[in-house]
Amino acid sequence: MAARRVAITGLGIVSPLGLNIADTWNALREGRSAIGPLQSVDGSRVGLKIQNAAQVHGFDPLQHFQGGKDAQLDRFAQFSVVAARQALADSGIELTPHLREQCAIVCGSAVGGQAAIEAGFEDLWVNGRGRVHPLTIAKTMANAGASHISMDLGLSGPTYTVSTACSSANHAMGQAFRLVRDGQAELAVTGGAEAMFTVGMLKAWEAMRVISPDTCRPFSKDRRGMILGEGGAMMILEPFDAARARGAKIYAEICGLGMTSDAHHLTQPSVEGPARAMRGALREAGLAPEAVGYINAHGTGTIGNDPVESRAIREVFGAHADKLGVSSTKSMHGHALGAAGALEAIATVLALHQGILPPTANYLGRDPECDLDYIPNHARAQRVEAALSNSFAFGGLNAVIAFRAANQ
Amino acid sequence: MPDAVAEKVIATLASVKRIPAEKITVDSNLREMGIDSLDVFTLLFELENAFKISIPDDDVRSIQTVNDIVEGIKKILAAAPPDASVGSASPAD
Q1: What ipTM was estimated for this complex?
Q2: pLDDT, tens digit, 9 for 90 and up, residues A34-71
Q3: Does residue B14 belong to the interface with chain A, where contact is any CB pair within 8 Å?
Q4: Would the pTM count as exceeding 0.95?
Q5: For chain B, which domains are there?
Q6: In the CATH scheme, what is the homologous superfamily, with its name and number, of domain A255-405?
Q7: How many C-beta atoms surround the C-beta of residue B64 within 10 A?
Q8: Interchain CB contact of B49 with A (< 8 Å)
Q9: In A14, A103, A259, B64, which residue has its Cα 20 to 30 A from B79's Cα atom?
Q10: Whose CA is closest to A289, among A240, A322, A334?
Q11: Which residues of B are catalytic?
Q12: How confident is the model at residue B36 (pLDDT cuts 50, 70, 90)?
């Protein structure tokens, strides 16, 4: 079957910026950051130093899951299902038995049901209990999000989870894109979810010395590191022609994936690996670099990432780099690890759809090593033809997705 | 002749990098020795346990030589007594 164009026709999100697309987008375009004091985790007993985070507030599982079902899903799987329900409803698609069997689900998650496994360990080693909750395994497995989406929505096509740390969601959405493009699925639910605010995880991140003591200031002078986030975001993908035929609202086209490995270092980024991934996404999308007007950067706000990513963008785009709007929305929703690419895909797709480029919040001023236009602090009204969304993971695994405005 | 703090730092670095301590001096440049950020974080973790101190993240960025670590630890030790909550077997102690 010839390669097909792939449309994005539904969006769903549970994020620190809001429990749905409208609230999240309002915060993104207003440059409002959800970073604040860490709540709901008591790390005082182990001297937890991390004080700030971008957490999802106001999410009540009982509003979404009945009959005790909420207790069968770890928080990350709850985010997965709720975001997928929103996305499917938003798409307005009528699910025939054929479509249900032909619907792929590809999700990203870096650490899966972290809270479930940690609660089990606490029972064993702190509380001195001789047994753990019987659903510990089923709640912890990284594929639980994808599996629960499948059961909840009655979708029975190819379903799996990709786990590549901070690139998980981009790898996942790229796989879903290719399944639909190549005719191996007629529909796809894809994105990522993460909920890793547990004492053990936070202590592990603290030990890496990459967490900012105040806030996340990507590409800015005086940046001091990343801020962890959580959430879930899902998109509905379908063949462009099928979407147009049913009169669907088309947010944007997903048109390219670039994947590379640095083969370099466990945590230090390289210029070359990300640059090759961006080139790969452009090549698969059939986009000239000059067609791109916006990049949603990986932009973690660490000392290491931001100059290297800036150099990689310059290497790929040459003189056109100075005409790009580049922002890191992690400054607002934090770094949600395996969900990061999914939250950022929503920001990127809506930027194309709405003609508004979300800003880099908390920006204080220019760092000589970061010399691009980072859309500091205020969104910009600008229609662009195409956009990239970058994700680069620990372990040197890079995944970049290309999107095109729907009217092209 | 290195003092006790320097000896401990050198011994710990030798253990982390699996190299003989004789190959390390206080003047050794970490980058030139092929010691990257992951090695440094592991080294500091071991030293925090050994000296029962907490080394602030912001102090880590300026480290270039073994002596930078030695001097940094001496400053922390002079400023405050060892922190019992760091490096003990039971964090609840």
Answers
A1: 0.71
A2: 999 999 899 999 999 999 999 999 999 999 999 889 99
A3: no
A4: no
A5: 4-79 (1.10.1200.10)
A6: Thiolase/Chalcone synthase (3.40.47.10)
A7: 11
A8: no
A9: B64
A10: A322
A11: 36
A12: confident
